[in-house]
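Archive entry: two folds, one per protein. Generate the first.
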Amino acid sequence: MKGIDLEKPIFYQNASLRFFDKNEKHITRICETDVLLLVFDGTLRFSEDDKKYEVVPGMYHIQRQGTYQTGYDVSDSPKYLFVHFKGIWTENEKNLPFQGSFEYKKLKSLMEDLDKMSHENYTYTEQCAKFFELLSILYNRGKNEQAITEADNIANFIKENYLNNISLETLCKKFHFSKNHVINIFKEKYKKTPVEYINELKIKRTEYLLEVTSDKVDNIAYRSGFNNYSHFYRLFFRKNNLSPTEWRDKKRHDFKI
């Protein structure tokens, strides 16, 4: 997604809180700067080069310098912070996407500080420091949200393919990530490694097959994605403190009772 390149210079200009009147529309203009909008109440409606946008509470949007902006419809009395600045747009990895989310409660005081500093006797350096703090928070929140999405994608792939002898290397090739990245983002979301997650699904399947079929234990292990019976046995015993045969007998005995 396109956004502001955080590896290149960014030039802050000014910031202010803005509250729309009832039935007010976004102004029509070609803005000479980029404009960061953080909406915390109401809905702001505008178009950029005829592409329509609605920015709702908890969303930020960066209007790109040089675009033709107009209020295509009445906005719903939005309240927001706008920040004028100039940056370089890119699709490189280290950018702040032009749209994203933010937590107003966490940013409320920072947004109010930016508004205050723009209208009172604060130095440009002090204002820049506050602005870059805001950019950093938005960027890191976006990275965390992306990591969660990536972890979910990996988990979904595992659930669909765990019987096909997938490994950590399989996941790295599939998602084009390093081993450390795969492990770290997955543990952050699921509190376990991808390999532990794979084994957990396999063990659950063996338990199901042990309970509902009379198939031999080694066949069940193979049908559940285990190529090494000793490895399967260790994992099963570690979880249940019973051998697969003992676990099956206990289940059937409990069922009869």
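Generate the second and append.
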Amino acid sequence: MAKVSVIGAGSWGTALSLLLFGNGHDVTLWSIMEQEVEMLKEKREHLSKLPGVKLPEEMKITTDLEGSIRGADLLVLAVPSPFTRSTAHAMAPYVKEGQIIVNVAKGIEEETLMTLTDIIEEEIPACRAAVLSGPSHAEEVGRGLPTTVVAGARDRETAEFIQNIFMNQVFRVYTSPDMLGIELGGALKNVIALAAGIADGLGYGDNTKAALITRGIAEMSRLGLAMGGRMETFNGLSGIGDLIVTCASVHSRNRKAGYLMGQGKTMKEAMDEVKMVVEGVYSAKAAVALARKYRIEIPIIEQVNAVLFEDKPAREAVNELMLRDKKIENPLLPWD
């Protein structure tokens, strides 16, 4: 049994705390919000973000950040990506040398273009940072439905430690050394999912969705490879796997926000209606900035940015994608 603290009591943090408790670990669930903690203690359920998923009475729920961190064998950082830096900064004084922090959020910081584990390492130099990602909606993990993810770390020992902590008969964990590729896949697929949702909101069909997923993974891979990620990662769980589920699932907040925008709502109206952090919105500008830095073409992500931040009509954005210059699908394939 390990002592594990989950930092962040949103839908994903709550689902993972239940999973870890079921694996026999001593679990503490932390939230910065007193009202949220009181609701979880009283109802043993996150009424707004994960309704119907009950938390056991024995699980500790607290606002005491220092107490959550001291003595923990593993810290699971589950706050939404825009709050990763501020939360890591608050955690830093209490983290001991070599303490493992596994990030489970998905995003790129707009101002610095840093991945979330890079932020954690900058704010908490003493820690060993890692990442857990893949096609894994909280609503399904909380109900114990079969799910498969990948744990990335800079050394095999850390990745295997995380694998052993999380893995059970319904939650399968692979390991990988490609932390950068895992994080980029998790962040960029959210932007493509916004595009998929926009297409659904416009009333387009399965052909359109398949095109966005396929060309989306091409954009993610081009940028990721230029930055140092591995193609095997983008072809795996945190790349194409997470992209498929986020573009297609009714649980996807990114797809839902895109759907609402496709129906004519503004970005703010869509985010207000989703009522949870739509992480693709925060990663979209960063993705365009990275593409310009590395001189990579990402037309889908660029059009999503135009819809989000330049009030471009969604239908016009799709039309521009369809009317781009003629291309070869894969320039690396030779003609006979």
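Annotation attached to the second fold: The first helix runs from residue 11 to 22. The mean pLDDT is 94.
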